[in-house]
Design brief:
Helix content is about 30%, strand content about 20%. By secondary structure, it is of the alpha/beta class. It has two domains: about 1-150 and about 315-325, NAD(P)-binding Rossmann-like Domain (Rossmann fold, 3-Layer(aba) Sandwich); about 150-310, 2-Layer Sandwich (Dihydrodipicolinate Reductase, domain 2), CATH 3.30.360.
């Protein structure tokens, strides 16, 4: 059994992670951390886990967590996560980081987009990006894996086949993305209060969303060209789910059938990407680790639709994929 610890166990992604790991035949959830006073029982924070997991949340040092576990999932905020992870990597413990701290390859870019100096810059550019559909060969045996963002996974998975096949221009790509409110996390914020977001659709962080450089970096690396996108996220009054409608300019004439076949071929051995004929909807993937993709061609443009559950394929599900690959388990364990 692999002893697992979860840093920052009070959030939505931590809850989904625990639900998945409880289904994993080779996992023992050993440690949960939180800065909340009183060491509350996990069921007091997540009532869904009543009778399923008997652990208290503890405020303990990262070195102590590392000593009690074989693998740690860090669900902590940006910067806080790296500061904790640094203290664990001197041991043999493996770490999957949910924050953006190790996703970007350049410390200056991180400082520009996240507003502060990176606490562990030497590991930037040396940490595997944990999107198994593109980097599965690099993940096994790694000590530290950077779990992708939810918007980024949905966008990258939609675009990668057509960019890799030179079907679309790498510049001028427009990503119109919409996410449920859980994507903003569990901490109270004015914009996600029920009276503020219910019955309302709004864009945010226009032209300056932090996932922009991550999308461009990963697609550029994976397809060996300079990819540039305009990424605009929107908040939708629903609990969960992401739908990205992506507009691109074709490089060469290709029918919808040809583009769909290119995507199917690209993902033919990837169990969690479904290239579908129908237009994807968030309810089709809710509670699953699937990314549904479809493609249309109209008026000289290629339109890619990509859809995920932001808490599963966009966070905890792909983290379990990475965990499985790191430890030599079947990639689909606990996810199907």
């Amino acid at each position: 059994m692999v002893r697992v610890g979860i840093l920052g166990a009070t959030g939505y992604t931590a809850l989904e992670l625990m639900k998945l790991l409880l289904r994993h035949p080779d996992v023992e959830i050993a440690t949960l951390t939180s800065r909340q006073e009183g060491n509350p029982h996990v069921s007091a924070i997540h009532p869904q886990l009543t009778g399923r997991l008997d652990l208290q949340l503890e405020d303990i040092a990262p070195e102590t967590v590392a000593a009690k576990t074989d693998c740690v999932f860090s669900c902590l905020p940006h910067a806080t996560s790296a500061a904790m992870i640094m203290k664990m990597l001197g041991s043999d413990v493996r770490v999957i980081d949910f924050s953006a701290d190790y996703r970007l390859r350049d410390a200056n870019s991180y400082a520009e987009w996240y507003g502060h100096k990176h606490p562990d810059p030497d590991r930037l550019g040396n940490t595997v990006y944990g999107l198994p559909e593109l980097f599965s060969d690099d993940i096994p045996g790694e000590q530290l894996v950077a779990n992708p963002g939810c918007y980024t996974s949905t966008s990258i998975l939609g675009l990668a086949p057509l960019l890799a096949g030179n079907y679309i221009e790498p510049a001028g790509i427009i990503i119109d993305a919409k996410s449920g409110v859980s994507g903003a996390g569990r901490s109270p914020k004015l914009t996600t209060l029920y009276p503020e977001c219910n019955e309302s659709l709004s864009a945010y962080a226009v032209g300056r969303h932090r996932h922009t450089p991550e999308i461009e970096q990963v697609l550029s690396l994976a397809t060996k060209q300079d990819v540039q996108v305009i990424f605009t996220p929107h908040l939708v009054p629903m609990d969960r789910g992401i739908l990205c409608t992506i507009y691109a300019t074709p490089v060469k004439d290709a029918s919808e059938d040809q583009l769909m076949e290119a995507a199917r071929t690209f993902y033919e051995d990837k169990p969690f990407v479904r290239v579908v004929e129908h237009l994807p909807a968030t309810k089709d993937v809710t509670g699953t680790n699937f990314c549904d993709i479809s493609i249309r061609v109209t008026r000289g443009r290629v339109i890619i639709l990509s859809c995920t559950d932001n808490l599963i394929k966009g966070a905890s599900g792909v983290a379990v994929q990475n965990f499985n690959l790191m430890h030599g388990f079947d990639e689909t364990t606990a996810l199907l």
